[in-house]
């Protein structure tokens, strides 16, 4: 691959990455860069032919021959990229943190063995092996050593780009069958962790001379609703006997602590003061808790879609907060906050730098949603957008730092040396309530056990987005799961913007947005046009954003039901609400009925806007 592809994907006025300049090679070097972008992965690069031949390895290279690592070949990078370490700003290709994980020299191995052993070869042989799809080489690095092979896989899956390879460690004296890449968490160049490179610890980006607003608006309606539901639940429970299955399960799930520890169980009751919590003694007895170092990355658990609310004593129900998902890593008095795409959110929410002081734990991973409340105490995505501002090319514009944020925390993934992903949800939430004191900026996201219909009706009356249903015994799965369900009052979907139409009548800037979703072949399919939901200021601002990414070629595959469309590169995501999916014709396919624009989503990648999960059948309970 030439550097044209590298150049096409980047705006060098906005990214610190080196320009696409062909340079003289400095030898056969290799580098492995740990890259937290949409997903955490490792970029493996070999210096040859004046560029860095590159593969993205999701799980990273290994010293264990049993680990056959998938390696996706990507565009060639310039030689000057060899020691790049830093932050690629949001809005740019590959946005995220980059760390130099390993460096060293490499040598191609001749494809023809001598006396049964592979011997050093030439660069010409290496180029021929890459073309053939079977590259053998030897590494001399600080962490990786010995013989490897990169094997090109024949594309079998639909939509494959044909860039799938396997990276395999060969059997030699450097084999380590217990190799754990997570043990090596610091740069071989700077000695910094990913968090330090991202500026999470001691960065000037965190500093602010303006104190965070703590006033906010208390959601009194929510407290009243929860109180009424609790009262109703107590009445129902008073009619049941001690011998019911629900009571037996609650007794058995009393943190699952042996009887000799029963005195410690009292410290996790709702009324117990946080000062008497013995966190370690309690968490280590939770069924499923595993003692291990704090994970460096978490893919947030996602909910599947359900159409109707329901009551079930084995489920708990929460308000669906309409904001941005934030996973917080607390360690050594500092916090690192990332989005669902693993982007650094520290500079965006500087007031949450105080989070370690507000949580009763030495180390923890929290999962929650950052929101801005309106004057009625309801989460408002529109206000959240005003807080963060619409972004053009990674530059924040028109942000309103005067709008106070709230961090509603609904799950606890790790606590003081123990991984809780295999612990039942009701136990995780019980522990979360104890380590999270009441406050204005950070709040525990409460729930109702068994009563989904009543909470859904209360949320509907208050004009909220919907509720979440979660199985009480569900583990934390780093994927979309049917153990968690989202029940929306108004259906919403995130779509890729592929174009805009000319305005009509007295309207200015544009008429509607042409929207699309990716199918399983990675083709962008038109699903409708959103022409409502804008005010004059939004029309002007969004038009300015889209003008910068205009293109002459349609990004859609297939027909587009719109006239006078100005095509744009599929780089922006819009959230829209709609009444239902309609199947127009066999040619037109699925379409959104009455889509209304809600806002641009800066926390979503266009590649994630797919049909999968959007039109599935009703989830039953």
Describe this structure in words.
By secondary structure, the protein is an alpha+beta fold. It folds into three domains: 3-198, no CATH class; 220-487, DNA ligase/mRNA capping enzyme (D-amino Acid Aminotransferase, Chain A, domain 1); 491-608, Nucleic acid-binding proteins (OB fold (Dihydrolipoamide Acetyltransferase, E2P)), CATH 2.40.50.140. Strand 13 and strand 14 (334-338) form a beta hairpin. The longest helix has 19 residues, at 220-238. It is globular and about 80 Å long.
Low-confidence stretches: 200-220, 239-277, 391-395, 616-621
Question: Into which percentage range does the β-strand content fall?
Answer: 25-35%
Number of domains: 3
Count of helical regions: 12
Lateral arrangement of strands in the main beta sheet? 1-2-3-4-9-8-7-6
Largest sheet: 8 strands, antiparallel, barrel
In angstroms, what is the radius of gyration? 26 Å
CATH topology of the largest domain: D-amino Acid Aminotransferase, Chain A, domain 1
Helical content class: 10-25%
Shape: globular
| Average pLDDT figure | 81
Query: Class of the largest domain, according to the CATH hierarchy?
Result: Alpha Beta
What is the second-level CATH architecture of the largest domain? 2-Layer Sandwich
Report the span from N to C terminus. Answer: 50 Å
CATH homologous superfamily caption of the largest domain:
DNA ligase/mRNA capping enzyme
Structural class: alpha+beta
What's the number of extended β-strand segments? 31
């Amino acid at each position: 691959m030439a550097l044209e592809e590298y150049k096409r994907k980047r705006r060098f006025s906005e990214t610190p990455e080196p320009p696409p300049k062909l340079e003289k090679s400095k030898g056969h070097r290799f580098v492995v860069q740990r890259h937290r972008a949409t997903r955490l992965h490792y970029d493996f690069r070999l210096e040859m032919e004046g560029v860095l031949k590159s593969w993205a390895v999701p799980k990273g290279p290994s010293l264990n021959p049993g680990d056959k690592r998938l390696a996706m070949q990507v565009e060639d990078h310039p030689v000057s990229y060899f020691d790049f370490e830093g932050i690629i700003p949001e809005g740019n290709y590959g946005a995220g943190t980059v760390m130099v994980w390993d460096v060293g020299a490499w040598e191609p191995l001749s494809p023809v063995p001598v006396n049964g052993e592979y011997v050093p070869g030439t660069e010409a042989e290496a180029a021929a092996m890459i073309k053939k799809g079977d590259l053998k080489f030897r590494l001399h690095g600080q962490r990786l050593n010995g013989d490897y092979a990169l094997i090109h896989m024949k594309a079998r899956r639909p939509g494959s780009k044909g860039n799938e390879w396997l990276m395999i460690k060969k059997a030699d004296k450097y084999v380590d069958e217990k190799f754990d890449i997570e043990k090596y968490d610091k740069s071989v160049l700077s000695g910094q962790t990913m968090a330090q490179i991202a500026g999470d610890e001691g960065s000037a980006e965190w500093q602010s001379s303006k104190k965070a607003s703590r006033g906010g608006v208390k959601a009194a309606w929510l407290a009243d609703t929860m109180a009424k539901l609790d009262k109703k639940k107590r009445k129902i429970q008073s009619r049941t006997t001690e011998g019911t299955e629900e009571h037996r399960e609650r007794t058995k799930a009393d943190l699952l602590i042996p009887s000799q520890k029963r005195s410690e169980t009292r410290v996790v009751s709702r009324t117990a003061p946080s000062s008497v919590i013995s966190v370690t003694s309690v968490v280590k007895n939770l069924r499923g808790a595993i003692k291990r170092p704090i994970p460096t990355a978490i893919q947030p658990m996602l909910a599947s879609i359900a159409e109707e609310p329901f009551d079930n004593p084995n489920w708990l129900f929460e308000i669906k907060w309409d904001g941005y998902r934030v996973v917080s890593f607390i360690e050594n008095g500092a916090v690192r906050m990332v989005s669902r795409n693993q982007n650094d959110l520290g500079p965006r929410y500087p007031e949450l730098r105080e989070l370690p002081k507000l949580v009763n734990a030495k180390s923890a991973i929290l999962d929650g949603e950052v929101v801005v409340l309106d004057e009625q105490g309801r989460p408002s995505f529109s206000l959240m957008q005003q807080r963060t501002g619409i972004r053009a090319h990674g530059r924040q514009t028109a942000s309103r730092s005067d709008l106070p944020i709230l961090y509603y925390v609904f799950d606890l993934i790790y606590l003081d040396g123990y991984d809780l992903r295999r612990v039942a949800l009701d136990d995780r939430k019980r522990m979360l309530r104890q380590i999270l004191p009441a406050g204005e900026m950070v709040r525990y996201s409460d729930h109702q056990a068994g009563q989904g219909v009543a909470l859904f009706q209360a949320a509907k009356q208050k004009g909220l987005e919907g509720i979440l249903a979660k199985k009480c015994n569900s583990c934390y799965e780093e994927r979309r799961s049917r153990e968690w369900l989202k029940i929306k009052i108004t259906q919403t979907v995130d779509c890729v913007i592929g174009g805009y139409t000319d305005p009509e009548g007295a309207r200015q800037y544009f008429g509607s947005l042409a929207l699309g979703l990716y199918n399983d072949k990675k083709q962008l399919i038109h699903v409708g046009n959103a022409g409502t939901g804008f005010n004059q200021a939004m029309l002007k601002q969004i038009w300015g954003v889209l003008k910068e990414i205009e293109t002459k070629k349609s990004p859609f595959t297939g027909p587009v039901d719109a006239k006078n469309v100005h095509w744009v590169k599929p780089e922006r995501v819009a959230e829209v609400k709609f009444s239902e999916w309609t199947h127009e014709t066999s040619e037109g396919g699925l379409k959104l009925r009455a889509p209304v624009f809600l806002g641009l989503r800066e926390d979503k990648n266009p590649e994630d806007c797919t049909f999968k999960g959007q039109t599935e059948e009703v989830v039953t309970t």
